[in-house]
Structure formats: C-alpha cells, structure tokens
Amino acid sequence: MLSERQSKILKLIVERYIQDPIPVGSKVVSKQINCSSATVRNEMGELEKLGLLEKTHTSSGRVPSEAGYRYYVDHLMEIKKMNAEDMLKLQMVFRNQQLALSDVITKSLQVISDMMNYTTVVLGSKSHENLLKQVEVIPLDDENLTVIIVTDRGHVEHKNIMLKDVSLEEVKKTVGLINNLISGTPIDEVGKKLEFEIKPIIGNYVKQHEQIYNAFYHVFTDFTNQEVNIVGRNKMLEQPEFSNVEKIKNVFNKLDENEILSSIEEDDDNNIKVYIGKENNIDDDITVIQTKFKKGNDEGTIAIIGPKRMEYERVVGLLEYMKENIER
Amino acid sequence: MLSERQSKILKLIVERYIQDPIPVGSKVVSKQINCSSATVRNEMGELEKLGLLEKTHTSSGRVPSEAGYRYYVDHLMEIKKMNAEDMLKLQMVFRNQQLALSDVITKSLQVISDMMNYTTVVLGSKSHENLLKQVEVIPLDDENLTVIIVTDRGHVEHKNIMLKDVSLEEVKKTVGLINNLISGTPIDEVGKKLEFEIKPIIGNYVKQHEQIYNAFYHVFTDFTNQEVNIVGRNKMLEQPEFSNVEKIKNVFNKLDENEILSSIEEDDDNNIKVYIGKENNIDDDITVIQTKFKKGNDEGTIAIIGPKRMEYERVVGLLEYMKENIER
DNA sequence: TTTAGCACTTTTACTTGACAAGTGCCAAAG
DNA sequence: CTTTGGCACTTGTCAAGTAAAAGTGCTAAA
Asked: Which of A38, B87, B99, B190 suits B76 as a labelling partner, its CA being 20 to 30 A distant?
C-alpha cells in the first residue's frame, strides 16, 4: 500500500503527464507538494521500485508505467462530472425524439469524439443475438433484385443479386416460406435452417430452386456478424504518441479487423471497464475504455479509444453519463 | 516540342523516379542512353528550363515536376497490358455470376488495392439520378419501425425511427400513398413532393399525420447524396511520401469529406482521366486516376488514388481493363 | 526523516570536417 | 554546331566532438 504522500506524488505525475507528455522531474513535483525535491526524489525512487513509474533514461524525469496507470485508475483518480457545456452538446442529441437509439448513440459519439479528440466505437449485438424478423425482395429490373433482411433489433442489411431466367413469382414464394417458417431464428442459424427446412420444400414445387436457394443462402451467410461503427478514426492522428507511421499503420489495421474489436466486449458485466496498454488487443500504446449498455431489446457496447495517457477522469465520467442517458 | 533525346531522358527519369523515389543524376541516365553524362546534363538543364524537371537543391539530381508528370502521361507513357497473374485474380471476381455489379466492382477494387498498394474509390450515381423505387416499412416493436428506401439502381438505405402512439395502420396508409404517388421521383426531389403532394392528403384522413410526415421527411432528406466507397484507405500509409503525420491527416480528412471526392467526377466524358497534384482537390502530393463506367441502368466512377509518382502505365492499363470488363 | 549540495549521466542542439553525389561551365575534339 | 572530358563548386549526409540543460542518486548534515 502506498503512503499518502506517495499516492499524492503518483497522482500528480500521472495527471501532469496526461496533460503534457514530457517526463516529470522532482523539482516540478516538489513545488506542488510541501517538501523538497530531494524528498520527492526518494519517493519517486520508491515508486519506481514498485513498478509504478519509469525513467526514459538514467537521468530523466519519471513517466507512469502501465502499472502506474492501472494504480491511478483503480485507486487515485476522481471521476469528473461533465461540465455544463459538454453536457449541453450531448443533450442536444439526446433530446431529439424520433431518432432511433442507435442513431442517437452514433451521433453522440461523434460529438464526444470531436470534443475529446479520441476515437470511439459502437458495437451492436452479435448475429447470434439477432433474430430474423423479415425478408423482403424488391425487383429492380428483369434480372436484378434487392434482398433485404431485417432483424428484430432493427439491424437491416441488403444485397443486390442477379438471377437469370427466374420468375419473380418463384422468388416471392420462397420468401414467403422463409418468413413463415424461419423468422424468429438467430441470424447465424438461418443458413442451416435454410438447408434443412426450406431447400427440401422448394425443391418440390419451385422451379430454378437451386439458383434461388444459393442466392438466399449467400445473402444470409454474408450477413455481418456484428455491426461495428468506428467514429472519429482520424482523431487518433492528433495524439502525439501516433506521430510515426508504423504505429498508425498498426492501429488502423487493427481497427479494420473487426475480430479485434469484438474481442473488446468479451466481459459480461455491466460496469465501465478500462483496458490499458497490453490489457487490450489493439496496441500497447493505447487504452480502451468501454461499457455495455442495454435498453429494452437493444444492447451493445460503446468504447473510447485513446492513448495510454488518456484523460481517464473525464472519459469515465463521460461514459457514465452516456450509459445513464441511454438506459433511461 | 521535345527532341527525341529529351523525350527519352524525361521518360527515363520519370520511370526511374517512380520505381525508386530518389533524385536521378546525369550519370545514371547516360548509362542508359548513348551519350556522355555531360550531354545529359545539358539536356537536363534544358528540360528544367522548360519546367519539366526540378532539383531538390543546387547540386542534386533531377526529379520530375508536376508538369513533367503531365508531359509523361500525355506523351511518353506506353500503357501496359495487365500481366497474366493479375488478370487471373480479377477474373476470379468477374466470373462470379450472381454478384450484383456494385459488389463485383467493390471486390475487384479490393483486389487492385492489395495488388498495387493504392487506395481506390467507387462513387455511385448521385441522388438526383436515383429514382425512388419503393418504400417499405417493417415494425420492430410497439414504438420502433424500420423504413427502407430502395432506388431504381438498387441503392438501399434504411433508418430506424421511433413513433409514439401512432398506429401501424396509419403508417402503412402513408407508405401506400408514397409508393403510389411519388415512386419514380428523383430522390432529392422526394422531400418537396412529400410536402406538396402527400402532406395535404394525409392531413385529411391520417391521424397523427404531423408526426408521420416529419419522420418520413427526415428519412428522405437524410438520404445519402451519393454512395462513396473507399477501399484500402490504409494503403496510403505504405507510400513513402506519406511518412509524416500532417500529410496523412490531410489526406485522410479529405477522403472523409465526401464533397471533395464527388468533385472527382465532375467531368462528363467517358475516358480515363489523370489528375496530378494540384489538378485534384485532395492533396498536392497525390494523383487521382479515374474513369466513369456505365452498364445498363447502372453507372458510377471508379478512381485509384496514389502518390504523384504513381505507376501510371500500369494503373491506366488496369482501369481500361476494369472498364471494359464492367461494361461488357 | 528531511534536505542541501554535488558528482554524474543523458539528451539535445550545434559545429566541424570529410566524403559522396551531382551540377554548370569551359575548352577541346569531332 | 554538337559532344565530351575535366574541373571547380555546392549541398547533403554522416560521424565525432562540445557545451548547456535537466534530472538523478547519494552523502552528509540538520
């Protein structure tokens, strides 16, 4: 356990470094605290032995280590209530009735991204949690038609397909069957049901059933596993830790691989989670702060991605506010 | 007009610089051409006076100027046929029947982006060219429903909206009216028609018409003006000219502003166009090579974005091939 | 336990010199 | 008139060296 003074020093260093990413020396700290720089140096040495601080070279000031940030988040930070101005901006979005929840969330994350200069992410529910609500087919011309799939959570996806020498009637028959027999099925099980329940039936009395079956089969198996919405991707570039291209490349590539992002929301519980550096799968130099939300039928995860020296106090406060407002 | 030798020298310099971005000296050139380095130096001086070459400092080798690239593209380059291997990769995509055109294009641009390390863009037709085909409404629960808009070109967009205390019947009535009265209208005129043709009617015999009208009005006015699909955005980061963050920031931000991209396809005719450096609106250090395509009802633009020292011969050949295959 | 003081380390910003690459121009050769 | 060899000159790059600034660790005294 840290002494009171050690806590004070660690907190000071972390916050100063978050505000301005240059190593913090004993002199600066001693001014903020009632003792000499020598005393601070001793304490800093202690904190370094505990693994909470690091030096960039033998005679540099100190920088928080990953464990240091962890300790800060777990024990030292005081979550900030949002200021009135920021709150107002978000209220503008929340006030807007008529917007569906997912649009409200995306819009407010846009606002947050601009206001904090961090990247944000919304993850929808996964495909096994989405039930097929309805399939619609809309002919575009002789050969082309649009297939639209709607899930119970309002996730809509469409695909244009080309069917040659197939009559619209036959297609509509098939769609009718699908809607009658397998709506209510989790999306990722539709493929199977299509094969074992629909295919045998249409085999008998739908002409060109092979072609139609294939088309629908692909539409469903190509269905996005999880809606992932990244807002303010370029904000990452504002952070000084991403001034070299290799770093940027890594992070951007990771953001594009949805699997990585999905790994974000593996935890079950409902709290705000902070994943610092190695604790996340994206990059050692970033922190992910996230929380699940759930409102009625709708659920998902929102996350804020920034450098390790993120403004934890503000971000956590912000997410608390978001969560509260979404679920209310 | 350039002498034959000057042309040869310019071509050599451009191509060498494209392959490897270091200034080209007279010695290297003289080896490839049948004369001494001194002669080459004289000619290079001449080409510099003409504004086709530049020096990075008084005693460096030469680098093509923007005009130099322009001249190269207009007069010197010999468009390359695709090699068998690349052709095969693309054929794999084109062969796939059942895929709608837009999917074929996106998939093949993905292939191209990987194979060339450039960013690619597909622009769909603009909203004034898209006619409303059909509106569908699918209820999700008591309060939420999904509105789906389909255009004649198969552009589908949906929006979830929340309507409190409105019966589904009323909504369906309205949708029926829209489909009967204004399908066939260019999307960006739907708002107006909604106001002057639908609103007065539903005003009379639809309860809650105000709320319903507003919801639909917004769904249509929020309709994306033009589908923009950027493929391989991160490939930009592979190019040495984008090794500094400011550059990256600028280009990425521009890519996100769709207006800029739309300005890409201002030209009317049907040829392959090359916009080098200042000739495009994105960034002085990049080149955009683009072409319109048109197949039946469907049309749009595909573009390849890379550094100014782009492999013009290959890219143009590739676009020719793409265009041909799309339109066939 | 705290603090003043000092030797020591490292980074950063400049300078210096040597070398390589390349130019422009002149005078001679073709 | 064109081409070429030769040479003086310019600039960038790299490595080494220097001086100043920031900060540490340790010791000895308060």
From this structure: B87
On chain A, the residues whose CB falls within 8 A of the CB of B148 are: 136, 148, 150, 156, 158
Model confidence at B27: pLDDT above 80 = yes
- Tokens 């001014």 appear where? A31
Sign of CA dihedral A49, A52, A56, A62: negative
| Residues of chain A contacting residue B160, judged by C-beta atoms under 8 Å apart | 100-103, 154, 156
pLDDT in tens, B80-90: 999 999 999 99
B168 to chain A, any CB pair closer than 8 A? The answer is: no
Q: Give the residue from A109, A113, A83 showing the smallest Cα distance to A94.
A: A109
HSE-CB at A257 with a 13 A cutoff on CA atoms is: 12
Using alpha carbons only, what angle is made at residue B56 by residues B50 and B59, rounded to the nearest 5 degrees? 90
Q: Which candidate, B119, B113, B56, B69, places its Cα nearest to that of B89?
A: B113
Tell me which residue has tokens 């009632």.
Answer: A34
Is the pLDDT assigned to residue A1 strictly greater than 70? Answer: yes
Local structure of residue B79 (DSSP, 8 states):
P
- Helices A312-327 + A101-116 axis angle, to 10: 160
Q: Is the CB of A44 under 7 A from strand D?
A: yes
Q: What is the mean pLDDT of chain A?
A: 93
For residue B52, what are the CA distances in angstroms to B11, B13, B45, B70, B277?
A: 11, 11, 10, 9, 14
Tens of pLDDT, residue by residue over B219-265, are 999 998 888 999 999 999 999 999 999 999 999 999 998 767 766 76
Q: What is the pLDDT of residue B199?
A: 92
Q: What is the model's pLDDT at position B266?
A: 67
